[in-house]
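User: hey, got a sec? need Pimeloyl-ACP methyl ester carboxylesterase folded
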Amino acid sequence: MALTPPAWRHTLTEVPRGAAGVLRLAGKWRAMATGPRGRGEPVMVLPGLFNSDRSNVALRRHLTRMGYRVEGWGLGRNLGQRAIGQDGERLFARIDAMAERYGAPISLVGISLGGLMARIAAHRMPGHVAQVVTISSPFAGPPDATRVWRAYQALSGARIDDPEVRALVGEAGRPLSVPTTAIWSASDGLVGGAICRGEDCAAVEVRSSHVWVQFNPDVLRAVAVALAT
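Assistant: Yep! Here you go:
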């Protein structure tokens, strides 16, 4: 079966649905401070395309109050392969330094493109990564099965048919040797749910847009539960 981009009815309603998720989080923030808790395990959160650590501040704060030692990736805006291809050593060095600082493998939580990067890092640094949690990350299919591939090309400076890009996508899609959870949505308007989960994952479905998915309270709960499992 051919993998295709999401239905336009979902794509055209991305922003209002994303805004509704943010409003839901504001109303449920205090009540969400319950459930499975961590015991100080280190967690790094990787942002989505063209986003920085500021984009996932709510997720990091939630995981911190749930008992984890949480850090952002600290590499500015996510410009795609520049962080895992040409400048890949920067990301891997950050992971290595964090694991050494805490004396334990770290969990990687990646949003959209950040999830592909998290999976690639887990492949290359298995002794440094405890587990991977991806959020709306299209690692199980081709880039042109999304509605963001043109934006990726414009922002990253790379073409999706470049051999390096195809190799990185293929690497991200290979089964991992560490536990992994894939959080996905059938109503995602930018990447189809079918390419956001794989056979190696514990797949968790939520109802969410792609835009501001990291502010959706159901997603925040799902990440905390996955890390505690």
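Quick note: The chain has nine helices and six strands. Let me know if you need anything else on Pimeloyl-ACP methyl ester carboxylesterase.
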